[in-house]
Design goal:
This protein is an alpha+beta fold and 211 residues long. It folds into 2 domains: 33 residues; 174 residues, Glutaredoxin (3-Layer(aba) Sandwich). A 6-stranded mixed beta sheet has the order 1-6-5-3-4-2. Helix 2 links the parallel strand 3 and strand 4. Helix 3 packs antiparallel against helix 4. The longest helix is centred in the first third of the chain and has 30 residues.
């Protein structure tokens, strides 16, 4: 009887250990993960309609694959803002839609692109992260109204299949690159997965800025 009790206790401890490390791994995977090398394979493409901000003639372009319904993506925006402020003349960020978090992720991406048709992509980008949720809880028209957009044009754009095709193209590109988490930054031959610190992004930029 005593031996059975010992076996039971050991088994419970073993399960708890597995759960503890399993949760820890999941948290790290969701927040950040080691960088990996992209050299020699497919690279991101900066299309003429790709939302871009930062230096006009950058030494380095950061491709950000992200989802407007991704909490970690929202958290990471302050770091990117700091990077762009510090390297205002040398770095640009290109937004890449990677909508996969929720049912409303693609709709949010389309809404931001429609705002971009009225030259307010980044303002709407910030509004979506501030009012983060899914298509059922986010009133896209309210965002357009608050930002002073032409609401009729914006609403018509939401049903434009060509906009959805652009979003799908970014997503397909990310999948082809092996991206499966957001945010993911592609900087030269390196991909940074998950929320990174300012220093971690800066370290990835350093060798490219020195060229």
């Amino acid at each position: 009887m005593e031996s059975k009790r010992v076996i039971l206790i050991v088994s419970v401890i073993g399960i708890l250990v597995i759960l503890f490390f399993g949760i820890d791994i999941w948290r790290n995977r969701s927040a950040s993960a080691p960088a990996f090398d992209f050299s020699g394979i497919l690279r991101p493409t900066q299309y003429k309609e790709s939302p871009t901000k930062g230096a006009d003639n950058p030494k380095v372009v950061i491709f950000e694959y992200a989802d407007f319904n991704c909490a970690h993506c929202a958290d990471f925006q302050s770091v990117l803002a700091q990077i762009l402020d510090t390297y205002a003349n040398d770095v640009a960020v290109v937004w890449k839609d990677f909508p996969f978090v929720s049912q409303g992720s693609e709709d949010s991406a389309v809404a931001a692109r429609c705002a971009g048709k009225q030259d307010t992509f980044w303002e709407y980008h910030d509004w979506l992260f501030k009012n983060q949720g899914n298509a059922l809880s986010v009133d896209f028209a309210r965002g357009a109204q608050e930002l002073g957009l032409n609401e009729k044009n914006f609403t018509q754009c939401l049903s434009d299949d060509t906009i959805r095709t652009v979003v799908s193209r970014d997503f397909a590109e990310g999948k082809a690159l092996g991206i499966d988490q957001t945010p993911t930054l592609v900087i030269g031959d390196v991909a940074l997965v998950g929320v990174q610190t300012f220093v971690e992004v800066e370290q990835a930029l350093a060798p490219l800025l020195q060229k």
